[in-house]
Design brief:
With 398 residues, the chain is an alpha+beta fold. The protein has eleven helices and 19 strands. It folds into two domains: 272 residues, 3-Layer(aba) Sandwich (Aminopeptidase); 116 residues, Alpha-Beta Plaits, CATH 3.30.70.
């Protein structure tokens, strides 16, 4: 079974909501072994009272095995098999785990994010092995986790530590996250923004709402703070006019007032900042503190900070050019670099090797009726296949 649609449907029918893989790896491992992959299953998370199943699979070309070359020309693909909950299934056109095909599209939870991408690189690897395995000097690694949509503590991070300790660190990793904007291959990612959360509690002075000059409304102070943080001049002064400006999002705003004519004594807000390199979380935290001191007053607030990820740039220009040239030769158009978005397992992978993200159109991810065009599965499979062929033909990335 190497047909990309059939593979995608098989993966989608596992109800692998984080952290339960629903037996997906029990099915996948024998299939990979039939292709010649050696599979290593890893369970992490015992301290949480449950396990997360993860899989590293490694295939070595026959020429590499004959020559005893352990690490020549190592390419990896990475992805996650866990999905977010389906939500209200009555809002779906088809059952979310039925993998139904209609109107030229494949419907199902995880189709876009990202079992469709996983199916594409599995299919591409299978095709390459069947036609070029005997003459290939090098290896292909597969990094699969069922913990990306959750805390991501028991998936790619510990799996990569094991891979690196075993000496299997690849020269390049392709991550199949959905990056396409309108059509497959029109966008890639070679960097990711960092994410910092700030919970701020502001002490005000309550009073009658008809006499605002005698009060100090903490809600208004928080509104003024957010307005100041969204001002481009604040960030341009910090890192220069050419820097990509962070996105500021207020995720919650709460106060203790229960009367309709009394301003509250206390108010709190949860603010998320998404920032790109060259910013670091320490610089962002320092700026948030400085602006809060100025707008609210240092003695009038308390703040807690949590860093989800740091910003990074993974690939040098030669890797990006290599990917873009391959996409253009395969699809007829050249991709651009996607900006924005959230985090991914690339935040772990880039610490070990260059990683570039290329996947399906992400418009419907996490939504009811998540779907991708069947044609897009074949196109992405073709791009992955072209990358594999070029990688081994040229002995890696130039």
């Amino acid at each position: 079974m190497t047909d990309v649609l059939e593979l995608a449907q098989r993966l989608l029918r596992f109800r692998s909501v984080t952290p339960d893989d629903d037996g997906l790896y029990d099915w996948l491992v024998p299939w990979l072994e039939s292709l010649g992959f050696r599979c290593y299953r890893h369970r992490f998370g015992r301290e949480k009272g449950y396990y997360v199943d993860n899989l590293y699979a490694r295939w070595r070309g026959s020429k590499s095995q004959r020559d005893g070359n352990k690490q020549a020309c190592a390419l990896a693909f990475a992805g996650h098999t866990d999905v977010v909950p389906s939500g209200d299934e009555s809002q779906w056109r088809f059952p979310p785990f039925a993998a139904h095909v209609a109107d030229g599209a494949l419907f199902g939870r995880g189709t876009v994010d990202m079992k469709g991408g996983v199916a594409c690189f599995l299919s591409a690897c299978a095709d390459f092995i069947s036609t070029n395995g005997s003459k290939t000097d090098g290896s292909i690694g597969l990094l699969l986790t069922n913990d990306e949509e959750g805390e991501a503590r028991y998936g790619m991070d510990p799996l990569l530590r094991w891979v690196d300790a075993e000496g299997y660190t690849p020269q390049l990793c392709v991550l199949g996250e959905p990056t396409a904007q309108k059509k497959v291959g029109d966008a890639y990612r070679s960097s990711r923004r960092g994410s910092l959360h700030m919970t701020i509690r502001v002490q005000g002075k309550s009073g009658h709402s008809a006499y605002p000059t005698t009060n100090r409304n903490p809600i208004e102070l928080l509104m003024a703070l957010v307005s100041q943080l969204k001002a481009p001049a604040v960030w341009q002064t910090a890192k220069g006019a050419d820097s990509e400006l962070p996105d500021i999002a207020v995720l919650s705003l709460q106060s203790g007032s229960e009367a309709s004519n009394v301003t509250p004594e206390l108010a709190s807000a949860h603010v998320n900042v998404r920032f790109a390199a060259p910013y670091t979380s320490e610089q962002v935290r320092a700026l948030l503190t400085s602006v809060s001191d100025k707008v609210v007053g240092r003695s009038s607030y308390q703040a807690e900070f949590h860093v989800s990820s740091e910003a990074f740039v993974s690939c040098q220009s030669n890797v990006v050019a290599w990917l873009c040239d391959t996409c253009e030769a395969t699809l007829g158009y050249r991709p651009f670099e996607a900006r924005g978005g959230g985090t991914s397992d690339a935040r772990f992978i880039h610490q070990y090797c260059p990683v570039i993200e290329l996947g399906l159109v992400g418009a419907s991810m996490h939504q009811s009726n998540e779907a991708c065009l069947v044609e897009d599965l074949h196109r992405l499979r073709d791009v992955y296949g072209a990358l594999i062929h070029r990688f081994f033909d040229e002995g890696g990335v130039p």
